[in-house]
Amino acid sequence: MAKNTNKTTETAASVSDFINTIADEAKRADSFKLTALMEEASGHKAKMWGPAIVGFGSYHYKYESGREGDAPLIAFSPRKNSLTLYLPGFESKEQLLQKLGKHKQSGCCTHIVKLTDVDNTVLRQLLNESFKHAETTRCK
Fold first, then answer.
1. What 3-state class would DSSP assign to 118?
2. Neighbours of 80 (CB within 10 A)
3. What is the spatial distance between Cα 26 and Cα 18, in angstroms, rounded to a whole number?
4. Closest by alpha carbon to 25, among 75, 67, 73, 78?
5. Annotated domain spans of the chain
6. Angle ∠(63,71,33) on CA atoms, nearest 5
7. pTM score
8. Which residues, in sequence order, are CB contacts of 21 under 8 Å at separation 6+?
9. Taking every annotated instance into account, which residue ranges of this chain make up the domain YdhG-like (predicted)?
């Protein structure tokens, strides 16, 4: 059985160089701030995953189909319209999202236009809890 190859893999590319290519000055500054917040929450240095995802920590997955690979435990990507945070679900996530401030949610993706739109304390708690949950459930 042929295995599908994960297109989003960890690379040796520089996170700083990637963030410095962001044309929008405010989004670039928010990306550096978010990198620092996620490094603090995870205890891991930021690494590039594919060409546009900044990830923290990693885990190995294997599906019943035979497909397997590695993925970051938490991550974000500075997209055109928002900063997209990839955060796993956990028991109190919905309660924190209600307190977060202006954002959109789709699956495990939290979309924030700018960091000043959200409560920094709640964001830190969301990042900490997401990483803790990911580390305990995905790293077994």
1. strand
2. 6
3. 15
4. 78
5. 25-138
6. 155
7. 0.91
8. none
9. 28-129
Q: Helices (H) and strands (E) in the chain — how many of each?
A: 4, 8
3-state secondary structure of 40: helix
Name residue 65's amino acid.
S
What tens digit of pLDDT does each residue of 40-72 get?
A: 999 999 999 999 999 999 988 888 888 888 899
- 2 pLDDT higher than 50: no
Beta strands 83-86 and 109-112: pairing type?
antiparallel
* Token pair recorded at residue 62: 């294997």
CA distances from 37 to 5, 76, 77 (A): 31, 11, 14
In this prediction, residue 139 has a pLDDT band, given cuts at 50, 70 and 90, of low
Q: How far is CA 21 from CA 33, 56, 72, in A?
A: 15, 20, 22
Mean of the pLDDT values across residues 131-136?
Answer: 88
Q: What angle do CA 120, 125, 130 make, to 5 degrees?
A: 125
Rounded Cα gap, residues 86 and 73, in angstroms: 9
Task: Give alpha helix (H) positions in 1-140.
Answer: 15-20, 25-42, 93-100, 120-138
